[in-house]
Amino acid sequence: MNRHGHFDAFARGLHWLMAVMILAMLFIGVGMVASVHLRPALIDLHRPLGIAILVLAVLRLGNRLRSPPPPLPGDLPRPQRIAAKASHWVLYTLMFAMPLLGWAMLSAGGYPIPMFGGLHLPPIAPHDPDIYAVLRAAHGWLAYALFAVVLLHVAAALFHGLVRRDGVLSSMARGRA
């Protein structure tokens, strides 16, 4: 159990790297929908970035299980404790679900999934237009959910850092004081 009141350096590094990557993905997704001209280039960026997020999510979950987060402040009300834990597990679920849904969606659509250097991912779903349509809709709706959860996460972090000043934000921002 982590009783040091801070996240380890690996957890902090993964958190901030993935935060930048996930925000980039959200903006890339908006750009893919909004621009016909930029769509091919954005898709070429979106695929490998999504798989990179999936790989980092596996590392992050493994590190979290090995090195649990510091305890929440003792005076934090129970509903906020429940919301904090639930929102983190929702974030983890979405960090896994979004890339896997995208990969399955492309597989169901019969699209090749090129990565870097000629590497192609194998299909993980059968080629089926009906499955493609369901997965595409799910990927889109979960993107909205991810955006909402990220906004709530940032709001909660700012609340802890600026209003409560209870060390929760600094435990991820700086680690050990």
TrEMBL record:
Pfam families: Ni_hydr_CYTB
Residue ranges crossing the lipid bilayer per the database entry: 12-33, 45-62, 89-113, 141-163
InterPro entries hit by this protein: Cyt_b561_bac/Ni-Hgenase, Cytochrome_b561_oxidase, Di-haem_cyt_TM
Keywords noted in UniProt: Cell membrane, Electron transport, Heme, Iron, Membrane, Metal-binding, Transmembrane, Transmembrane helix, Transport
Gene3D superfamilies xref list: Transmembrane di-heme cytochromes, Chain C (1.20.950.20)
GO biological process: respiratory electron transport chain
Cytochrome b561 bacterial/Ni-hydrogenase domain segment(s): 6-175
Keyword Transmembrane helix (UniProt): yes
Keyword match Metal-binding: yes
Membrane topology term: Multi-pass membrane protein
GO molecular function: electron transfer activity; heme binding; metal ion binding
Annotated signal peptide: none
Cofactor section: heme b
One of the record's GO cellular component terms: plasma membrane
Localization, UniProt: Cell membrane
Family: Belongs to the cytochrome b561 family.
Protein's recorded name: Cytochrome b
